[in-house]
């Protein structure tokens, strides 16, 4: 019951984190004998400790299991990488049991730009007008 997080990076509130090993292995908790659980793996920024770590958060066994919630407050900000369904009585997880949540902008998402872009068309038009006036 091992889950591997491969090479990659996360950018959380101005802080960068990278998995630099080939694989970071996480041990998934043993299955409950009667009920399924939903566990999650997060990248967690702890502002108080000034640390960023990958954490495994175990869910509660239930007839209708719910994944643990991610924490987002002044001290801790988490990005959910995946959700794992641990079926009752099993001794291994498969790829089908893992839901990749990196594409979900609500719980994770991708960095598309580090700074907000500006429309400089008006400034360019001012320079162009000035240049043409000077040339004339």
Features:
single chain; 136 residues; two-stranded antiparallel sheet; 11% helix; elongated
Structure description:
This protein is mainly beta and 136 residues long. It has one domain. The strands form 2 sheets. It has a 4-stranded antiparallel sheet with strand order 4-3-5-6, with no helix packed on it. Strands 1-2 form a two-stranded antiparallel ribbon. A hairpin with a 2-residue loop joins strand 1 and strand 2. The longest helix has 15 residues. The radius of gyration is 22 Å and the shape is elongated.
Quick overview of this protein structure:
The protein has 136 residues and is mainly beta.
Tell me the count of domains: 1
The helix/strand series, from N terminus to C terminus, equals: EEEEEEH
Q: What is the alpha-carbon Rg in Å?
A: 22 Å
- The helix content is 10-25%
Largest sheet entry: 4 strands, antiparallel
User: What structural class is derived from the secondary structure elements?
Assistant: mainly beta
State the end-to-end CA separation. 76 Å
List the helices and strands and how they pair.
Elements: E1 2-12, E2 15-27, E3 37-46, E4 51-57, E5 76-86, E6 98-100, H1 121-135
Antiparallel strand pairs: 1-2, 3-4, 3-5, 5-6
């Amino acid at each position: 019951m091992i889950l591997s997080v491969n090479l990659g990076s996360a950018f959380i509130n101005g802080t960068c984190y990278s998995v630099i090993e080939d694989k970071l292995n996480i041990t998934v908790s043993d299955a409950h004998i009667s009920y399924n659980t939903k566990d999650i793996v997060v990248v967690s920024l702890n502002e108080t400790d000034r640390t960023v770590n990958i954490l495994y958060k175990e869910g509660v066994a239930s007839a209708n299991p719910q994944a643990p919630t991610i924490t987002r407050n002044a001290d801790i900000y988490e990005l959910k990488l995946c959700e794992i369904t641990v079926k009752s009585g099993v001794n291994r997880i498969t790829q089908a049991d893992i839901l990749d949540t990196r594409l979900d902008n609500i719980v994770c998402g991708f960095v598309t730009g580090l700074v907000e872009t500006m429309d400089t068309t008006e400034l360019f038009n001012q320079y162009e007008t000035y240049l043409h006036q000077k040339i004339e």
